[in-house]
Amino acid sequence: MAVISVNTNEDKTVSIEISVGAEEFEKAVDAAYRKEVKRIQIPGFRKGKAPRKMIEKMYGEGFFYEDAVNATYPAAYQAAVEEKGIEPVDRADIEVKEVGKDGYVFVAKVAVKPEVTLEGYRGIEVEKTVSEATDEEVADEIKRMQEQNGRMVTVEDRAAQMGDTATIDFEGFVDGVAFAGGKGENYPLALGSNSFIPGFEEQVAGHNVGDEFDVNVKFPEEYHAEELKGKDATFKCKLHDIKVKELPEVDDEFAKDVSEFDTLDELKADIRKKIQQRKDDQSQTDVENKLMDAVVGKMEADIPACMFENRISDMVQEFEYRLQSQGLNLQTYLQYSGQTMEQFREGFRAQAESQVKTRLALEKIVALEKIEATEEELNQEFEKIAKNYGMEVEKVKGFVPVEEISSGIAMNKALDLVRDSAKIKEVKAEEKSGQEAEKPKRTRAKKAKEEAPAEAE
C-alpha cells in the first residue's frame, strides 16, 4: 500500500488516493481464485479443478479482480488513514480508478473530525442554584410510601366515588354496532385515573354494586383509532365490585414495616438526607451543563453533518434496545405515538448536537492540557466495569478497548479542570425565585421578543 495524495475538498471531506501494489494484489487474486474455483465448471476439467489461467482465459483476465479488490482495500484504507493521521467520522466512499495485474488505485472520500479552536475555558463564571430539602418534600415521600403500602378493601354500603377502584364489565357501541377493542370483563378501573375516555369514569361514580347502566361519551378528535375519532359512543356497563385503598397509620410501627428504622423520626431524617443528596447531585449536574454550554460557546469548529446524524442513529438504536428489553419494537412504538421515523429522529437532534459538540470541546481540552489517564485510573475503571457486569477484570480488558476507557477518563479530567477553575457563585433557589419575581414585566416581554426570532429559525 502507498498513499499517492491527500486532498481536502470544498465540502470539508478528504480524498485519499491509495495504490495497492502488484505483489499484494496478486496474492489477493490467487486467494479469490482458490475460494471461487470450487463452484466453477470448465469443460474438460472436473468441477473445482480448473486451473486459474484456464478460467481467466475463458472469462477474462479480470475475472477475480473484484473479489481481490474487496478483500484488500479495507486494510489499505485503514493503513493510509493511520499513516497520515486522518480521523474519519463516517464511512468512506470508495472509487476504484485503475485495476490490472500490476495492482490498482482507488480514492477514498471521507468526512473527518474537524479542526477545533478553543480558548477561555478556564475561569468561566456561572451561578449554582442550591436548595434544601423541605418538610413538604419529606411529607410527600412519606405519603408515597403510605400509598404504596395501602391495601384494597371492599366497600359494600355505598355507591362508587371518585378515588375508588370499580370492577366493571363494559362493551362499547358506535351507531348501535360493537367495535373492536371496546369490550372488557372484570376490569379494575381506578375512578379519577383518567385512563378511560374523558367523561367515562365520572359516569361510573354514583352507581352501586350490581347496577347495569349506560355510559355515553365522545371519542377525542386525536384518538389513535382512525375509525373512532370524534365519534359518539355508548358503553353498556355492569358494576361488580367497589374497592377503596385503606392507608396505614403513619407512626413508628409504619417506619418499622417499610424501612430498617425503628422510629418515624429516623425514617424522616433518612428521607430528608436522600432528598438533599438528589438536590445536590442535580445542582452539580446543572453547573456542569452550564459550564460545558459556555465552553462549547467558545469553540470554533466546522462540524460535518454526518457526526450529528451518526449520533442520532446511535441514540435511536439505544432506544430500540430498551424497547426490546421490554418486549416491544420500534415500529409498534412509532405507530402508537403517531410519528414517522424522520420525526422520531428529529426528536433526538438537539441532544445529539449538544453531545457531539461537548465531546469535541473536551477532546480539545485534553489535547491542549496534555491530559492522560494513569495506569491506576485505567485499572480502577476496568475493576468498576468488571464489578458491574459480574465478570473477571482480565475478561473485561479483552472486549473493552483500552483506548475507549482511556479517552473517557481523560475527558472526565478535562471536565474537572473546567469545573475546578470556574468561578461559581452559589444562589439559593428561594432567593433566585424572588429575584425573578421582582423583575419588571417589560423586561420579560423584551426578553421574549428578543428570543422569538431565534425560536422561529
Main features:
single chain; 457 residues; alpha+beta; Alpha-Beta Plaits; Chitinase A, domain 3; 5-stranded antiparallel sheet; 4-stranded antiparallel sheet; 16 helices; disordered C terminus
Describe the structure in your own words.
The chain has helices at 22-36, 52-59, 65-84, 135-148, 200-204, 252-258, 264-298, 305-325, 330-337, 341-346, 349-369, 375-389, 393-399, 402-421, 429-438, 441-456; strands at residues 2-8, 13-21, 93-100, 103-111, 117-118, 125-130, 151-154, 165-174, 177-190, 212-218, 232-246, 299-300, 423-428. With 457 residues, it is α+β, with helices and mostly antiparallel strands. Among the domains are: 2-112, Alpha-Beta Plaits (2-Layer Sandwich), CATH 3.30.70; 152-246, Chitinase A, domain 3 (Roll), CATH 3.10.50. The strands form four sheets. Strands 7, 8, 9, 10 and 11 form a five-stranded antiparallel β-sheet that branches. It has a four-stranded antiparallel β-sheet with strand order 1-2-4-3.
